[in-house]
Amino acid sequence: MAVTSKDVVLQLVAGMFGAPPGKNFLDSLDTELNAVGRQQLAIDLGNSSFFKSIYPTTQGGYAFANAYLGALVPGYSVDNPAHLWALNWMADRFDHGIPVGQVVAEALAAVQTLPTTDPTWGATVIRLNEWTALATHYSVDLALSGSSLAELQDAFHAPVFSTADVNGTALTLHYPDLNGLDAAHAPAAGAFTVTVGGFARTVSSVTVDAAAKTVALTLSSAVFHGDSVTVAYGDPTAANDVNAIQDAVGNDAVSLAATAVTNNTPVVADESPPVFAAAEVDGAYLTLTYLDASGLDANNLPAPGDFTVKADDVAISVTEVQINSDSKKIFLVLSHAVTDTQAVTVAYRDPSTADDANAIQDVGGHDAATLATKEVTNVSPDTTGPVFDSAVITGKSLVMAYTDTAALRDTSLPLTTAFAVMVDGVADAVSTVTVDAAANTVTLTLATAASTGQAVTVAYTDATGGNDTRAIQDAIGNDAATLAATAVTNDSPDAVAPLLVSAAVDGSSLVLSYSDISALDATGSHAPLPAAFAVKVGASTDVVTGVAVNAGAKTVTLTLTNAVTAGQTVTVAYTDATTGNDVRAIQDARGNDAVTFTAHAVTNNTGVADATGPVLSGATVDGKTVVMSYIDSSALDTTHLPLVGAFAVTADGVADVVKSLAIDAASRTVTLTLATAVTNGQTVALAYTDATAGNDVNGIQDASGNDAASVSSSVTNLTLGAAVTLTGVAAVSDFSHFG
What's the distance, Cα to Cα, between the start and end of the chain in Å? Predict the structure, then answer.
């Protein structure tokens, strides 16, 4: 959209005066702009009595520039190098005879070329844009014309709260503003918070008087003479809202914190009974607060039996009743204290429908009505220690989560010796203890990192039966109880490298068999180089020409230049590139490198019939799936499967039924499906029974028909718990100035 001459006038006047020109001035200034141009108009405005009444143009360039920039620039400070530069630039131009209006116009033009995101001047650009928009709204949209500079400047400023008073149900807030308030877009009743005697009082309606510059609230019930009253107001957003306390131009008044209200309600004869307001309990003392125009009768007390108090639905007897007439409070002494976590209720029975001699009543003898069961605000002190919820370990970090009504105390931490951590039955020392008060967690840093599948437990010993100086405790000082050895969810990554189990050669194919919690990394670009291996056949070197990795079978197959013959002695050696985890190496799926090994004897199966059954190398479980991994020079037989009854699986000593099984010939694995899923931390074992000592028709066997032997084995539990993710935020900033 093209910039009009009126737009130029509005921008210039807003920037020079911090005010709109008003319709009358706008029309005349627009005519002058078209006649003399922007620079001369700015010079004329700078020479006006209006401008000179705002800024000290007679005190030199420094005083003028300092005053002008202080009014224009948010957060202006001569300690800011960019602000100081602008100050010196304007002062120097002024002191060298440049007309003040021209200096200001040049400064405004320079600022308006910058983006609103500029780290130094962006806020100033935003302010100029807002002022110009307000000037347009005031002078063009509303076609208003102020009668004074103060009135014109006030169009840029929000109404400011002055005082508040109340009379009965009418509460009035006063907002002096030269332009008057906007009566058409009143704020919502919910934007106000009114308290009477410390208790909330509902606002039922809101009206705005534009000329009187007042906001009138109608309360749901009348305030009595002498009641203490406060009012607070929340501006809906930081921007100018459709419905809010605002002036005629649309500037929103800021939020108002709880502020005392002058109570002008006159004294009236009390003909109404006391009305229940609230109830609160603190240990063995329950307080009921009533509203009444006069005080309560403190001499003719209701009987303790007229009250029914319950904590978690269990009755507590009232042993004594006391009343404070002036504060209009009734104090009940309970037979025993309630705890901070209990849900408390109270009810009251008025002895009769008439005014009774002894009852909750005002000084005029008007009885309060029977009170149905009411919830009581429980402010009893916290005497309950944090309760252990769960624990998760990731590597060296073991996090214990607690629940408590208060935050944990992050000072006076428990000693490291108060904890006992076991990893696969071996103690792991605790090196540090930290507490996150907000998250209610205790984090232990261990000496040695746990790995995937390891069984971890944690125990904690509270020093004494009381509240100790150094312990797991809440902010109140209540100690958490001693915790017996408890299973920890193990979310640790696999940090254990593959382990060489055996090596066998048949002709030109040499197979290295490994064991590992996870599969081997079979990515082609991650395979070790042939040069990493040294194969000796007798005294001669047999060069490796190819390397292939089978992830599931956990084997590394080397292709030799020369085929081995029957009876030859063969050794193999492997060199890991570095002591760290390398890109190309024998490694598991997690990237853990297998270690270097020197000349290792290789079983020479060349020309020898396979007469050895498969050998179990390990077993894992994940939920309902148990995987048994075997080592054999040939593949497993997938045709003559064993019966499911040949297997016995237990979890924490309890039998779990094997529903089905499957065999993978190439990876040499037997997979069992259980009826019930194993959970994280359970101890799992399995047994397999071969039918006879010979080779059977059905059994775990290799392709040559050699049976695997009966076996009993522990099972590595890979069933995981919930994962924990930590995130962080960083921010940067930059500064510059215009010139």
Answer: 28
User: In angstroms, rounded to a whole number, what is the distance separating the alpha carbons of residues 737 and 739?
Assistant: 7
The residues with which 587 forms a beta bridge, in sequence order, are: 593
Strand bridging mode 387-394 / 371-378: unpaired
Beta-carbon contacts of residue 34 (< 8 Å; ≥ 6 apart): 5
Contact 16, 45 (CB under 8 A): yes
Per-residue pLDDT averaged across 560-572, rounded? 95
Which residues, other chains included, contact 322 with Cβ-Cβ below 8 Å and sequence gap of 6+?
298, 301, 330, 331, 333
What is d(CA 474, CA 386) in angstroms, rounded to the nearest whole number? Answer: 6
Look up residue 254 and give its DSSP letter: P
Residues 479/472, Cβ–Cβ less than 8 Å: yes
Structure tokens at 428: 């792991």
Is residue 736 pLDDT above 80, yes or no? no
Go through 23-50 and write b for each residue having 16 or more CB atoms within 10 A of its CB, e for each that does not.
eebbeebbeebeeeebebbbbebbeeeb
Q: What is the pLDDT of residues 345-365, one digit of tens each?
A: 999 999 999 999 999 999 889
Q: How confident is the model at residue 35 (pLDDT cuts 50, 70, 90)?
A: very high
Helices (H), 485-572: none
Parallel, antiparallel, or unpaired: how do β-strands 256-263 and 314-316 relate? unpaired
Q: Which of 720, 714, 719, 721 is nearest to 653 (CA)?
A: 714
Measured distance CA(486)–CA(392) in Å, rounded? 11
CA distance 515 to 407: 46
- Between strands 387-394 and 483-490, the pairing is parallel
**β-pair partners for 215:** 173, 208
- Residues contacting residue 529 through CB under 8 Å, at least 6 positions apart: 547, 584
CA distance 596 to 79: 64
Length of the chain: 739
Mean pLDDT taken over the chain: 91
Phi/psi at 206 (5° precision)? -135, 130
C-alpha distance from residue 500 to each of 263, 514, 543, 586, 722 (Å): 89, 4, 21, 10, 32
Residue for token pair 């093209």: 2
Confidence of residue 270 (pLDDT cuts 50, 70, 90): confident
- Structure-token pair, residue 364: 């005029």
Is 293 within 8 Å of 270 (Cβ atoms)? yes
Residue owning tokens 């006038």: 9
b/e burial code for range 358-371 (CB count within 10 A of at least 16 → b): ebbbbebebbbeeb
**3-state DSSP of 551-577:** CCCCEEEEEECCCCCCCCCEEEEECCC
Contact between 43 and 99 (Cβ < 8 Å): yes
Separation of alpha carbons 180 and 18, rounded Å:
19
User: In this structure, what are the phi and psi dihedrals at residue 469, rounded to the nearest 5 degrees?
Assistant: -65, -45
| Of 185-199, 211-225, 261-275, minimum mean pLDDT range | 261-275
For the entire predicted model, the pTM comes to 0.43
Q: How far apart are CA 739 and CA 733, in angstroms?
A: 20
| pLDDT more than 70, % of the chain | 97
Instruction: Give the 3-state secondary structure of residue 643.
Output: coil
Q: Are 328 and 274 in contact (CB under 8 A)?
A: yes
Q: Of all residues in the chain, what percent carry a pLDDT higher than 90? A: 75
Kindly report, residue by residue over 56-96, the tens digit of the pLDDT. Answer: 989 899 999 999 999 999 999 999 999 999 999 999 999 99
